[in-house]
Amino acid sequence: MSNFLQTLFNTNHDQPSFLVFVVLAFIAIVVPNLSKYLYESRRARNAPHTTSSAASSGPKKKKKKKR
């Protein structure tokens, strides 16, 4: 556990290994894109379909102009 904390907080001020850079790059690139994709897919699945309901509602009435 102490090795993990030492690596995580870099208490010896050593240069991180190549594996640490790869993991950080993976987190920085993949995780935001994955979370955005999951958010959009949930939003699209739960949203009502407004285009089909608007088309079936019929023609809209025109407002009369005041003279």
UniProtKB/TrEMBL annotation:
Keywords: Membrane, Transmembrane, Transmembrane helix. This is Small integral membrane protein 15. It comes from the Bacteria. Residues 43-67 are annotated as: Disordered. The chain crosses the membrane at residues 18-39. The keyword Transmembrane helix applies. The keyword Transmembrane applies.
